[in-house]
Design a protein that fits this description.
Helices cover 19% and strands 33% of the residues. The protein is built from ten helices and 39 strands. An eight-stranded parallel beta sheet has the order 24-23-22-21-20-19-18-25.
Length: 659
């Protein structure tokens, strides 16, 4: 799939073709075009044709859309058969001095030819990411070649470039890892206008390009760009209240091996996994743990601690319960005995690596009577606690069903089982991530848990938004894009963490249900469940995880604003220094497709900043706040003309930001 960048273009004019040091091809310039953001798709282009909006130069050779061998995918193929001329394909996204975020996938058929993709300005290639003829990827810091590691033939690489014409610098990511930062442009320019891909003059070879996505991002006028937020791995962060969902592996709707390389890079420090009784015990009394062993061990090795939900049923047993979403509890004596044996074996097997367990998934969604669920919870929790005395055990429900939760807690207390409950998870799907009713219900839930199970916690255990229309599951009937998904996820996570609620993002990867795709993942998938690319939401959560590492929320933070309509503020302080990070965004309801900002004056009466900076969480860009735009009197800080929109921005002390 390709996302084109302009609705009006003129052909590229090739100014120079020749071997370059480290070597790519031609330098091209592009005429005026509309702003980036228009979308297109290689998959709908007739094989053999040049995609609309792209211009091709160079011969012999070609750049045409083709079916990718061995897949059901269609991509643009660049084929160079000459050692004296390059092949280049390019498209314009309009001359802009704003930040340009470009994502694309690149694949070479060999490791013996130089293939590259460039962001171009009037002077030529400003940012380059290339696969060299020596089997290594590289970019440039001004004229200095910067190594990005090895690459393999016939493997797709997921590449992201964030380029800032205002500072003449760029950052480069490969497969979710930032590989280079603050790179000086190869050719100095204050504006970018197009993206081009090509082969080197001296080499022959074939490359494939797909999923080209470019957007322009406005920046605060006159505010110096000072860098981008550097990601932190789960190992670097250690512990946090941010979790990432890895659900449905028990039903093979996702592929752990495919998304595992991205897992620790996100920065979430725990992951929710469904235990999969039916997948483990396909034959009565015979357990095959290999699939789950690998997941638990691998996640743990990446610094991401698994917490396991004990579910679903098992059709190997009569009365074994439902096997998926909305499934009923096991009921027969034989099935319940087998459940007991599996739970005990599960906890004994993983208790050295897992200490959090959740009992069943969304019993109220399945219409399971609360009395039946309570009995089942007590039965299961006692088995867990017997095998692992220090275990942490959660009850669970769909949505925020206060009556169901209250009945469960009352019945649990009547059975003398309140001491078995360490926490209660809820799944609040709604289009408005700032919904006041939701958090009012959470407060009621917290009050009930405190009353009936003192010391137990309430957490958000599953929540997300699709990235395209027609998605399976909750919120799938609404019109979503990768932009609105990103804003939604950021607002939900900041709202939860700002209220000191542990929160889980659903999920790491798109889910392939039998009927359709659930596009709530932070990673886009292919039809075989392999990872296509990291969505903007992945990088946004990565940024947020990095900034909030080692912080505590500041509930009840005192602020005022002008204008103040539909404004949300969540504040945090670093645990060691007390320096603050304050998230601000506007809007109510489902996030929009517009990034229009409103200049907003903010006053914090309990602030703690030595050197405040401005961070757009969605893009990761960090800008200095000029002295004319802020002032302090004691602990009262006033910030003027802060660009606020319906995605979180941060006012953060510079010391809290990793660059």
């Amino acid at each position: 799939m390709v996302y084109l960048s302009a609705t009006s273009r003129r052909p590229f004019a090739v100014l120079l073709a020749g071997a370059l040091v480290g070597g790519l091809i031609s330098v091209a310039t592009v005429g005026p075009a509309t702003a980036a953001g228009t979308t297109g798709d290689f998959d709908t282009t007739t094989p053999g044709a040049t995609p609309s909006g792209w211009s091709v130069t160079g011969a012999p050779g070609d750049a045409t859309v083709q079916d990718v061998p061995g897949t059901v995918d269609r991509s643009m193929r660049l084929r160079d058969t000459s050692t004296s001329a390059p092949v280049t394909a390019g498209t314009a996204f309009g001359t802009t001095s704003a930040t340009v975020v470009a994502g694309f996938r690149l694949r070479a058929a060999q490791t013996s030819a130089t293939i590259g993709v460039h962001l171009d300005g009037s002077g030529g290639h400003s940012v380059t990411v290339a696969m060299g003829a020596d089997g290594r990827m590289y970019t440039y810091d001004a004229s200095l070649q910067v190594d990005l590691g090895t690459y393999s033939a016939n493997r797709w690489y997921d590449i992201r470039v964030v380029a800032h014409p205002s500072s003449g610098t760029a950052d480069v990511w490969v497969d979710g890892s930032r590989k280079a930062k603050s790179l000086a442009f190869r050719t100095s320019t204050r504006a970018l206008d197009g993206i081009a891909a090509g082969t080197s003059t001296a080499d022959t070879g074939t490359a494939w390009l797909d999923d080209v996505r470019t957007t322009t991002e406005s920046t605060p006028q006159g505010w110096p760009h000072i860098g981008s937020v550097g990601p932190r791995t789960a190992w670097e962060i250690g512990t946090s209240k941010l979790s990432i969902g890895a659900e449905t592996l028990d039903r093979n709707y996702t592929d752990y091996q495919a998304f595992a390389p991205y897992l620790g890079k996100l920065g979430a420090t725990s992951t929710r996994i469904q235990g999969g009784w039916a997948k483990t015990e396909k034959t009565k009394g015979v357990y095959d743990w290999a699939w789950l062993d690998h997941i638990v061990d691998d996640a743990d090795s990446r610094g991401v601690k698994p917490w396991i939900q004990l579910s679903y049923g098992n059709s190997a047993y009569t009365g074994g319960g439902g096997g998926g979403l909305g499934g009923q509890l096991p009921t027969s004596a034989e099935a319940l005995a087998a459940w007991d044996a599996w739970v005990t074996a599960m906890v004994n097997r993983y208790k050295d690596r897992v200490n959090e367990w959740e009992v069943w998934n969304e019993p109220n969604l399945a219409g399971i009577p609360v009395g039946d669920y309570t009995d089942f919870f007590v039965r299961t929790a006692r088995l867990v606690r017997a095998a692992q005395p220090g275990s942490v055990i959660f009850g669970q429900e769909a949505g925020i069903d206060v009556p169901f939760a209250q009945d469960f807690l009352v019945r649990l207390a009547e059975k003398g089982g309140s001491d078995l409950l360490d926490g209660f998870s809820y799944h609040p799907y709604n289009a408005d991530p700032d919904d006041a009713w939701t958090y009012g219900q959470v407060q009621k839930l917290k009050g009930l848990v405190a009353q009936y199970a003192p010391g137990a916690v309430v957490r958000q255990g599953e929540n997300g938004a699709p990235s395209r229309p027609g998605s399976f599951g909750a919120l799938g009937d609404l019109d979503w894009t990768e932009l609105s998904q990103t804003k939604w996820v950021l607002r939900r996570v900041l709202n939860d963490l700002g209220r000191d609620i542990s929160t889980s993002v659903f999920g790491i990867s798109d889910l392939h249900y039998p009927s359709k795709i659930n596009s709530k993942g932070l990673l886009q998938t292919n039809t075989d469940k392999s990872i296509r690319y990291a969505k903007p939401s992945f990088y946004a959560v990565q940024t947020l995880a990095s900034v909030l590492a080692g912080t505590r929320p500041l509930p009840g933070y005192n602020w005022s604003a002008n204008p103040s309509a539909s404004l949300t503020v969540q504040a945090f302080a670093k645990n060691d220094t007390g320096r603050q990070i304050v998230g601000v965004w506007s809007g109510a309801g489902k996030p929009s497709e517009s990034n229009a900002v409103t200049a907003t004056d903010l006053t914090f009466t309990g602030g703690n900043f030595a050197d405040p900076v401005f961070v757009d969480v969605r893009t990761g860009a960090v800008h200095d706040i000029p002295a004319a735009n802020w002032s302090a009197s004691g602990s009262t800080y006033t910030f003027r003309d802060i660009p606020v929109y319906d995605s979180p921005v941060l006012i953060a002390d510079r010391s809290t930001v990793k660059f």
